[in-house]
Amino acid sequence: MNQPNNQLGRFVAAGVLLGMGAAAFFDGIVLHQILQWHHMVSSIRPLNTAANIELNTFWDGVFHVGASVLTVAGLILFWQATANSKVSLSLKTFAGSFLIGAGAFDFIEGLINHQILGIHHVKPGQNQLAWDIGFLTLGLSLAVVGWLLLIKEQQEVNT
Known about the structure:
Blueprint: H1 5-34, H2 50-82, H3 91-116, H4 128-157
Helix pairs in contact: 1-2, 1-3, 3-4
């Protein structure tokens, strides 16, 4: 790629942030709202009173604000990186970056919220630990696949 390193860095960072935002939105929309498997603090404040439902709904909203911030930051970096017509828009680079971001988000969020803080679990109840480990494994796998895509793209560019 014949582009300045800072442009490539912005392009990769944009993909990572957009991947993180997408993973956060998927988690919040699918797991919190549609499936209703958990909410942000449902392991410490179960949904058994109106006050706890309100508290969980509030923290779910804060979670979505965070997802929005990640997404907007990713869009700004994407625009900055691609505003220069000399920047090569590589699908492999973007997809790899996106998968790294999505996987990193799932892994970090799962490690902190599910394991360290225990404020919620992927699917509480029977096999709770298996669901949590599966979520961590999914996150790590997505990040590794993304990293491998980036490495492959760099090898192809350098040959």
